[in-house]
Amino acid sequence: MARSQHDVIVVGGGVAGCFAAATAAAEGLDVVQLERKSRERGGFIACGDAMKSPRDPKHYPGPIDMDAIADDESVRIDSTIDRIEYWDEELGVRKVLPYETSSNVVDRYEFGRRLLEQAADRGATQHYDTVVTEVTQNGRVTGVEAIRDGEPVTYEGKVVIDAAGAQSILQDLIDFEGLDAPGDPTFEVPHYTHFGAAYREIIETENPVSYHDAIVGKPLERMGYIWYFPRTPTEINVGLGFQMSEEPIALADRLRRDVENRPEFRGANVAEKFDAKNKLGSSIALRRPLDSMVAPGYLAAGGAAGTTHPITGKGIRGAAYSGYSAGRAAVQAVEDGDLSESGLWEHNRWLYREHGEAAKLASWDAYNVAASSIEVNVLRAVTALLPEDELREIVGTSAEVDDLRSKVLVGTGILRNLLAEYRKGTFETLDVSKRDLYESVRGVRKTRSHVSAYERRYDAYPDDRSAFEEWRSERDRIDRQLYDDLGLAPHEHKY
Q1: Strand, helix or coil at 175?
Q2: Start-to-end C-alpha separation, the chain
Q3: For the chain, does the N or the C end have fewer beta carbons within 10 angstroms?
């Protein structure tokens, strides 16, 4: 069996993997990046294609030149998306959530390829057609075994960065209990119900759609939603996703039923010029980021670390900053010669304390827990009642509304909407009682206070490994309070 030795082994060629590989390689480390796809299909991934401005260094740190990518006409398709629209057509509800600044629609394949090219330009060695089959460990993670171009290869390294996406195979292969660490392992493998399944196609319409400058979301009959993300007025990324805690849905069939029933999609077909690479499925994390993303010799980033938005599944930005953080922590650990859990702890500290957006994502997961505790028909009714500012807060990561006056105004807005919608008979088709609505709205309002409690707790994330158990114990207490307020039985607890 061939052997290959490196400072850092990055598993995955997506956003997190490229940011991690580029960051570590740019600092002079010997980095190998493993990608299971062929070189021609590298960068090819199922995605909604929408992303915040690539030029914002807060969102995209590190050595990747995002300005160059933003200026690449083969990548940037449209930069005029100025709002999210939520439609519940059965209820006749349409909510418009403006962006503070315009968003971008990108060709996800070309975007992914530019990231891979930049990681290689920064010095990372890239091995395509490489499928990891085993993780090697000896007190710490020491490398991986893989099949490359049909031949077995052992990769040995000082640090392995797991950027293999949601439901990473590496996490199934590692014996975390067998690694050398003080106390219980801080790394916990997520449960399958913490993920969602998604599917998307790109279709071409005969005529421009009226919502070409918006991205549209619609509720499913299960916990999930259908989206329409226009790439151009006649090229639409259509897709859907649902939480895997629910009964499975035949995703392609369900999407096809929706598309065939829409007048603007009449006569539309999967865009032939994009070939079959635009009919794709994937899994996404719909949970809070992992409490700890490190173990001896191991760092997790992107979907493998749960840095996607727990409500919408948006993940490009989270993958970028967590990949950068993992690469940065790997450099420090290798230079210090400390590959222990404590030596890699900077990855956790930077994401939760210094950068801080992981803390916001973790706090926002309370809304996912609350939504999952409500029957879908009631959840749709509650969403119809929420003022648009409140809905924008839940699906975004803006600062929370935490002053008393704002909370009173939100409550007043819900009450006003409730009276108006009942007068119109909006909820008759859902068979939702006023009592169910009242209790569910009350639960949403209570959840707001828990979001605040989570944010304060994550703002106090420990600077080092020694205080982790105490920190997690207090966070778990907030979990229990949330479950109690939502009336969840122990078997219904998410964590």
Answers
A1: coil
A2: 41
A3: N
CA dihedral angle for residue 326, residue 332, residue 335, residue 341, rounded to 10 degrees: -80
Amino acid at 206: E
Q: Round to whole Å and give the CA distance between 398 and 400.
A: 6
Q: Are 213 and 83 spatial neighbours (Cβ–Cβ below 8 Å)?
A: yes
- Alpha-helical (H) ranges within 373-490 are 376-385, 388-395, 404-424, 434-459, 468-486
* DSSP symbols for 462-475: -SSGGGHHHHHHHH
Please tell me the pTM assigned to this model. 0.90
Q: State residue 304 phi and psi, 5-degree precision.
A: -65, -20
Instruction: Compute the distance between CA of residue 24 and CA of residue 365 in angstroms, rounded to an integer.
Output: 30
Residue (of 219, 217, 224) closest to 238 by Cα position: 217
Q: pLDDT tens digits, residue range 247-286?
A: 777 888 999 999 998 999 988 876 654 455 566 778 889 9
Per the document, the length of the chain is 495
CA nearest to 319, candidates 308, 331, 329: 308
Q: Please return the burial class of 89, using the count of CB atoms within 10 Å of its CB with bins 0-12, 13-18 and 19+.
A: exposed
Question: How far lies 30's CA from each of 37, 124, 276, 452, in Å?
Answer: 22, 7, 36, 42
Cross-strand pairs, 86? 95, 217
Using the 8-state DSSP alphabet, how is residue 113 labeled? Answer: H
pLDDT tens-digit profile of 285-324? 999 999 999 999 999 999 999 999 998 888 888 999 999 9
Q: Which of 218, 268, 272, 208 is nearest to 242 (CA)?
A: 218
d(Cα 491, Cα 38) in Å, to the nearest integer?
Answer: 43
Nearest Cα to Cα of residue 460 among 477, 481, 446, 474: 474
Bridging pattern class, strands 224-232 and 214-219? antiparallel
Give the tokens for residue 289: 């980021």
Side-chain-facing half-sphere of 283: CA atoms under 13 Å: 19
SS3 334: helix
